[in-house]
Description:
Chain A has helices at 2-8, 55-62, 85-95, 111-121, 126-139, 155-167, 185-200, 212-215, and strands spanning 11-24, 27-40, 44-48, 70-75, 78-79, 96-99, 173-177, 204-208, 220-225, 228-234.
Amino acid sequence: MVIFERSRKHNMIKAIDIKKTYRVGKVEIAALQAVSLEIKEGEFVSITGSSGSGKSTLMHIIGCLDRPTSGKFFLDDEEVGELKDDALAEIRNKKIGFVFQQFNLLSRSTALRNVELPLIYGEVNRRERIDRARVALERVEMAHRLHHRPNELSGGERQRIAIARALVTNPSLILADEPTGNLDSKTGQAILDLFQKLHQQGHTLIVVTHERYVSGYAQRIIRLRDGLIERDEKTNRP
Amino acid sequence: MKFTENVRGALDGLNANRRRSFLSMLGIVIGIAAVVIIISITQGSQKSISERIEALGTNLINVRPGRRGGARGMRAQTLTDLFTVADGERILKRASAVKRVVPVVNRRLLLQYRDKNAEIQINGVTPEYQDVFNFWVEEGKFISDQDLKSLRTVIVLGQEVATDLFGDGNPVGQSIMVNGPSTRYKFRVIGVMESKGQVMFSHFDEQAFVPLTTAQKRLLQTKHVDSFSIQAKSKETASEATEQIDAILYQKFQDDTKYRIFSQEELLSTMGSVMQTFSIMLVGIAGISLLVGGIGIMNTMLVSVTERTREIGTRMAVGAKRSDILLQFLWESMVLCLVGGVIGIVIGWIGSTIIASIAGWTTIVSFPAIALALGFATVVGLFFGIYPANKASKLDPVEALRYE
C-alpha cells in the first residue's frame, strides 16, 4: 500500500543528464558531468560528497539559483533550465525554501520580520504575512521569540527561524545546505529531529551535507564524486 | 513590492549603520541647508528692495531730457533739449492713463541759517508732489497753489536738513537764506517733511522743496524744467501711460534720444532680474556642495552593497527579483538624501532666522524653496544611488551567497 502510494507520487525533481561547467580564466572546469536524478514528492534525501564533488553546484541548480550548462532540469514538472532570472526568482519564492549553514538571517530584523521576508517578495498582504509567519514560527517551536533579533538568539534558535522562513511559503521543496554545520552536535540533532518531523508531515527535503550522522536521517543518500553520482541508496529510515 | 515595504526596508537598512548613514548624510544636510538659506536671503532682499522701490511713490514714471556726449572740452554730457511746463500740461491733458504730472527743477544750492549752512538739493515742485511720491509733510504745511501762483519765497525742509540747521528747535516760521547762482533770497520755512530715508539713489531727508515758479523765476532764472515726475492712474495702466507719454514726447521732439522715460515698473523688473541672476549663481554654488554630498552617498552605498553581499544573496534566494534589489538600494539612497534634505531644511530655516535677527536682513523661507530643496535631495539620491543599486541587482545569487 505504501509502495503504491509512493509510486503514485510525481517527481518533484527530475534531472536529465545535467552538466555544469565553469570557466576559470581559459580553463573549463566541469563541476557536474552528466547527472541524472529523480526525487519524488515527500522524499527526504541527503546529498553528500567531499568538497569539490559538485554537491553545492547540484544544490544551486536544484534550488534554481543557477542554470545547468546543458541537460534538462524539471522542478515540479516544469522545466526551469531555460527560464529568465525573474521567473527563477519567482520559482525560488513560491516553490523552494532554503536553509543555509550560516543561517543568513537579516541581523537587524526581528524573527518575525525575517520569516515574513519571502512573503514580502511574494506580494502577500501585511496581515496575512504576519499570520503565516507566526504559524511557521510556531511549527519550529519559536513562537516565544517573535520579536527577538538574531543576535539575541542561540545558533539553534537562529536555524529554527531560518527553517521557519523556508516553511512560510509552503514550498514544494526544502533545500538545506549543511544545516548543522555551524551548530554543536546536540543542537544539530534537534534541528535534524525537526527535519524529520517536517518529513513526516509530508514535506520534500533535500539536505546537502558531508557529515555522516546528518545523512543518516535521510531515507535516501545520494553520494557525489567528481561531478558524478557515485552511489544512490535507500536507507532503512521510514 | 509595495511602496511602504520599500520605504520600511530602506529605513531598516539605514538603521543598521546609523553613524555611517548620518555621516554620509552630512554633505546633503549642508548642501540643502545652504540652498535654503541662500534662497531665503535672496528672496527676502528681493522683497525688501521691491518694497523700497515701491516706497518711491505709486506708479511713478520719470521723464528726463536725453543726454548727449560732450565734445571739444565741453562737459562730458549735455542735455539734448529741455522741457517746459507746457510739455507736462500736454502730457496730463492727452495721456489718458496719467493721473498727475509734477514738473521738477532741482539744483544744489546753499542754505544759511544764522551761522549754519548746508549745501543741499533744492527741488522746485508743485503741490501734487506729495501725492506722486507718497511723501508727506509732517509739521506745518506743504507748498500750496497760492504759493505757486504768487511766487512766494517759502520752503519745506527735509527732516535731516531741519535737524542740521535748527537742531532741536522748531524750524517752522523761521527764515533762512537761499543762495541761487546769482541771487540770494530770504525764505520762510513753512513745513518739515516726514522722514523717508534713502530710496534707491536719492536721499529724501536731505532735500528741501520750494514752489516751482519761485525756483524758476527767482532762484534759477530759467523757463525750463529738469524732469517730470508722473503718476499713472493705476499699476495696470502704468505701462500704457509710459507708451502714451512716449508718443506725446516723440510728437514734439521727433527724436527718441531727446527724452528718457524711466518707469518704476521697469526698475522693479530690472532689479528682479539682477537678484535672480545673483540667486541662481549662489544656488549653483550650493549645488556643488550637493554634488559632493551625493558622491559621499554613492561611496557609502557602494560600501554597503559590498558589505551586504550575502544579504543580497539571501534576499535573491527567498525570491527577490533583480528589480526588487535595485529598488531596495535606490530607496535607501533616496531616503538617505531625503532625510538629509529634511534635516537640511530645518537647519536652513533656523539658520536663516538667525541671520535675519543678527544681520537684520529680511529672509523668507518659502514653500517653493523647500520644494526645490527636497526635489534636489531626491534627484541627488536617485542619481547617485543608481550605480550602487545597479551593482547590487546584478550580483549572481550563487556568488553572493558564498561571499564571506
